[in-house]
Write a structure and sequence with these properties.
five-stranded mixed sheet, single chain, Threonyl-tRNA Synthetase, Chain A, domain 2, BirA Bifunctional Protein, domain 2, protein biosynthesis, 659 residues, alpha+beta, ATP-binding, eight-stranded mixed sheet, 20 helices, Ubiquitin-like (UB roll), globular, RNA-binding, 4 domains, 33 strands
RNA sequence: GCUGCUGUAGCUCAGAGGUAGAGCACUCCCUUGGUAAGGGAGAGGUCGAGAGUUCGAUUCUCUCCAGCAGCACCA
C-alpha cells in the first residue's frame, strides 16, 4: 500500500500509512504533543484527532494555544457535557441540538417542567463532575438505519427528525462521552478532562422553537458561556455588567430623558432632556440634508386604506399596521363609538412607512427628466404594530420617526446616487462619532419581481458605486427586498455590538404600483426608479444607540444639559445667574444650581445625571470673575476666567458640521 | 405572537391570608459648606387591572394588561 505525505506548517513533510489519524501523527512527533493535542487542521478543515486521513494533506496539530480551535472545541464539548448532565439528572428529558455560538453554546431540551435557576446550578455542578471523570471521547460512523433504529429505541424523536433531514450521502457520526452518546458532526476533544472546569457558566434558560419554526413545539434552551480560563470568563462577565450599566432604559431614567407607560406600549414620552437630544440631532440632520440636495417635505399620518391597497401594504403588511375606523356620519358630535354607522365608516391606517406618501408628492404635476434626480426627505413619523415580544426600550418601538428620503431618478442615475449617498452617510457617521462602518450588499432573493436583466443592471450599479467610493462590503446573496437589491450600513459601538442603521434600497416596484412617471427626453412618459434611503434609521433607536455607545456621557454638543453652574455659598448666587446668562447668550445649554446644598452634594448629583461640565462658584470666583471647571469623570478642577470659559464652551457646543 | 420570569412609594427593593416596610429621592427646619451623599423632622402606596375561593385577599386561583430574557418577527 502506498504511503501518504503529510506536510506540516514548517514545510516539512513526512510519510504515513493511509488512514493514519492526527492522534497517531502527534504521537509520532512527541509524547508531549500527543498529550497536549486537542484537534488538527487538515487541509484547512478542523479535524478530529480520531478521524483518519486518506490522502496527501497539509496538517497542523492544534493545542490549547490555538484560540479559535480551542474555544470551538471547549464550547462544543460543553454542549454535549451539559446535555449529558441534564439526562443524568432527568433521564426523561429529550435532547435536540446544541451548537456553538459566540462566547459559548446552547442546547435545546424538551422537558415538561421549566428549568429553574436552581436547576442551572445543579446542572453546572453535574457538568463539573463529568469533566472530572475525564471520560475519553470516541467516535464512529453509523449507518443511517442503525442510527434511526437506535434513537427510536431510545425515544429520541428529535434526533430521528434530524437524521432524516441530513442529506443521504453524508456520513452520520456518533460521539461518546463515556457511556453517553450523541449524534454530532464533531470534532471533539480527546477526553472531557480537557475542558477547563472553571471557565464556563450557565447563563439563562429561555424558550426556543424547534428548528426555529414558530409552528413547531417550544423547547427550553439553556445558554452557557465558556472560555479557555477563569480570567477570560471573568472578563466576559465584567463586559456584561458594563453593557448593563450602559442600558439606555436605565440611563434614560437616571438622566431624565424619557419614559414609557402601559397606556402607550412601545411609544416614547420624551422629557425635556431627551427631547433636547432629539431636536439637536434633527436640526443637525436637517442641515446635512439641505446641503446634500434634499427637499424636505411632510406627509399625513392617517391615510385611507385605498392608498395602502394600491401600494401593496394592505396585502403584505396589514397585520403590522394600526387600523383606524372613523364613522364620518358622526361629524364629531356623537362620541359613542359603539353606534357607528357601518355604511359611513371609513377605514384608515396610520402610516407604517413614508414611501407611498412620497410618491403622492412626486405625482403632483408633470415631472420632466430635468427634475431628476428628485430627492424628497421627511422626518417621517410612522406607527407599526410590532409584536409585543419585539419591543425593547426606545430601540424597537411602535411609534418612531425616520430620517427618511426617497430619490426619484432614472436607471442610469442609480449608480451615481448610490455613490453620493455612501459619501453623504460616511460624513454623517464620522461627525456623529462612528468613523468605521460596514456595508452589506444584499442581492436578489428567491421570491422577487422584475426581470433578470433589470436585476443584473441594478445590482451592478450598486456594486460599482461601492467600488467607486473605494469601500469594502460584505455580500449577502439572496437577502435583498423582493423588489430590488439593497445596501445596509452597520455601526459597531464602543463595546463591540453591531447596529444596522443606514439603508439604501432600489425600488422599481412602487413607482409602478402608484403610477409615478416623468417625461423623458424623447417626450414619452417613463417610470422613474425610487431609491429608499435612511442614515440614522429612526431617531428613537439611534438615540438609544448613542446613549449606550457613550454610556450616557454624550458628546458636549448633543448633551441636553451641557453645563450646570453651582454655587458654593449663597453669596455667590447672583454671580451664578450672571454666568448662566453669559453661557446661554452664546448658545450653551446651562442651568443654575443655587440650592441650599453642599458642593459635594451638587457635584455628585450632576455627575450621576451625566452633565459634562460643572462650574462651581464660591466667593473667590466672584471676586476674580472666574469659574472652577470640572469635567464629568475627572477629579481635578481648573480655575479659569469667565470670559475664556464662555468662549471655549460655546465653541465646544457647536455641532460638528458648523465647527 | 410563543416559552419562562416579574409587577408593592418617584427610584431600588423587603414583607405577610387579618388592608404595609427600608434606603435614596421629595417637602420643611437647622446648617453657608470648596468638588461624588452634612443633620433633623415630615409627607407619600386602591400592593398592575378584573373575576373567583374565603368570615376576610394586596398575599391563594384564573383571565387580562404591561415589563424583562430568549425565540419568532423586522415586508
Amino acid at each position: 500500500m502506498s504511503q501518504i505525505s503529510l506536510t506540516f506548517p514548517d514545510g516539512n513533510a513526512r510519510s504515513y500509512n493511509p488512514g493514519v489519524t492526527p492522534a497517531e501523527v502527534a504521537e509520532s512527533i512527541s509524547k508531549s504533543l500527543a498529550k497536549k493535542a486537542i484537534s488538527a487542521t487538515v487541509n484547512g478543515r478542523h479535524w478530529d484527532l480520531q478521524w483518519p486521513i486518506d490522502a496527501d494533506s497539509t496538517i497542523n496539530i492544534n493545542t490549547m494555544q490555538d484560540d479559535t480551535q480551542a474555544l470551538e472545541l471547549i464550547r462544543h464539548d460543553l454542549a454535549h457535557i451539559m446535555a449529558r448532565a441534564v439526562q443524568e439528572i432527568w433521564p426523561e428529558v429529550r435532547v435536540t441540538i446544541g451548537p456553538v455560538i459566540e462566547k459559548g453554546w446552547y442546547y435545546d431540551f424538551d422537558r415538561k417542567e421549566p428549568f429553574t435557576p436552581e436547576d442551572l446550578g445543579a446542572i453546572e455542578a453535574k457538568m463539573k463532575e463529568i469533566i472530572n471523570r475525564r471520560d475519553p471521547v470516541t467516535t464512529e460512523i453509523w449507518e443511517r438505519d442503525r442510527a434511526i433504529a437506535y434513537y427510536q429505541a431510545n425515544n429520541e424523536p428529535y434526533k430521528v427528525e434530524l437524521i432524516n433531514a441530513i442529506p443521504g450521502d453524508e456520513p452520520l457520526r456518533m460521539y461518546w462521552h463515556g457511556h453517553w452518546q450523541d449524534l454530532c458532526r464533531g470534532p471533539h476533544l480527546q477526553h472531557t478532562g480537557q475542558v477547563p472546569a472553571d471557565a464556563f457558566k450557565l447563563m439563562s434558560v429561555a424558550g426556543a422553537y424547534w428548528r426555529g419554526d414558530s409552528t413547531r413545539p417550544m423547547l427550553q434552551r439553556i445558554y452557557g458561556v465558556a472560555f479557555k480560563n477563569r480570567n477570560d470568563l471573568k472578563a466576559y462577565l465584567t463586559f456584561l455588567e458594563e453593557a448593563e450599566k450602559r442600558d439606555h432604559r436605565k440611563l434614560g431614567r437616571e438622566m431624565d430623558l424619557f419614559h414609557m407607560q402601559e397606556e402607550a406600549p412601545g411609544q416614547v414620552f420624551w422629557h425635556p432632556n431627551g427631547w433636547s437630544i432629539y431636536t439637536t440631532l434633527q436640526d443637525y440632520m436637517r442641515r446635512k440634508q439641505r446641503a446634500g440636495g434634499y427637499h424636505e417635505i411632510n406627509t399625513p399620518q392617517v391615510v385611507d386604506r385605498k392608498l395602502w391597497e394600491a401600494s401593496g401594504h394592505w396585502d403584505k403588511y396589514q397585520h403590522h399596521m394600526f387600523i383606524v375606523e372613523v364613522d364620518e356620519s358622526r361629524d364629531g358630535e356623537n362620541d359613542d363609538a359603539a353606534i357607528k354607522d357601518k355604511a359611513q365608516t371609513r377605514i384608515n391606517a396610520l402610516k407604517p412607512m413614508n414611501c407611498p406618501c412620497h410618491v403622492q408628492v412626486f405625482n403632483q404635476g408633470l415631472k420632466s427628466y430635468r427634475d431628476l434626480p428628485l430627492r424628497l426627505a421627511e422626518f417621517g413619523s410612522c406607527a407599526r404594530f410590532e409584536p409585543s415580544g419585539a419591543l425593547h426600550g426606545i430601540m424597537r418601538v411602535r411609534g418612531f420617526t425616520q430620517d427618511d428620503a426617497h430619490i426619484f431618478c432614472t436607471e442610469d442615475q442609480i449608480q451615481e446616487e448610490c455613490a453620493r449617498f455612501i459619501d453623504f452617510l460616511a460624513d454623517i457617521y464620522r461627525e456623529l462619532g462612528f468613523p468605521d462602518f460596514e456595508i452589506r450588499f444584499a442581492t436578489r432573493p428567491e421570491k422577487r419581481v422584475g426581470t433578470e436583466e433589470s436585476w443584473d443592471y441594478v445590482e451592478n450599479a450598486l456594486e460599482n458605486a461601492i467600488k467607486a467610493v473605494g469601500r469594502d462590503y460584505v455580500l449577502e446573496p439572496g437577502d435583498g427586498a423582493f423588489y430590488g437589491p439593497k445596501l445596509d450600513f452597520y455601526l459597531t459601538d464602543a463595546i463591540g455590538r453591531v447596529w444596522q442603521c443606514g439603508t439604501f434600497q432600489v425600488d422599481p416596484n412602487l413607482p409602478e404600483r402608484l403610477g409615478a412617471s416623468y417625461i423623458a427626453p424623447n417626450g414619452e412618459k417613463t417610470r422613474p426608479f425610487m431609491l429608499h434611503r435612511a442614515c440614522l434609521g429612526s431617531f428613537e433607536r439611534f438615540i438609544g444607540i448613542l446613549i449606550e455607545e457613550h454610556a450616557g456621557k454624550l458628546p458636549f454638543w448633543l448633551a441636553p444639559r451641557q453645563v450646570v453652574v453651582a454655587s458654593i455659598v449663597s453669596d455667590a448666587d447672583d454671580y451664578v445667574h450672571e454666568v448662566v446668562a453669559a453661557l446661554r447668550a452664546k448658545g450653551v445649554q446651562a442651568e443654575a444650581d443655587i440650592r441650599n446644598e453642599k458642593i459635594n452634594y451638587k457635584v455628585r448629583e450632576h455627575s450621576v445625571g451625566k452633565v459634562p461640565v460643572i462650574l462651581a462658584c464660591g466667593m473667590k470666583e466672584v471676586e476674580d470673575r472666574s469659574v472652577s471647571l470640572r469635567r464629568l469623570g475627572e477629579k481635578q478642577t481648573r480655575v479659569q476666567t469667565l470670559e475664556e470659559t464662555v468662549a471655549a464652551l460655546a465653541a465646544e457646543a457647536t455641532p460638528p458640521d458648523l465647527a
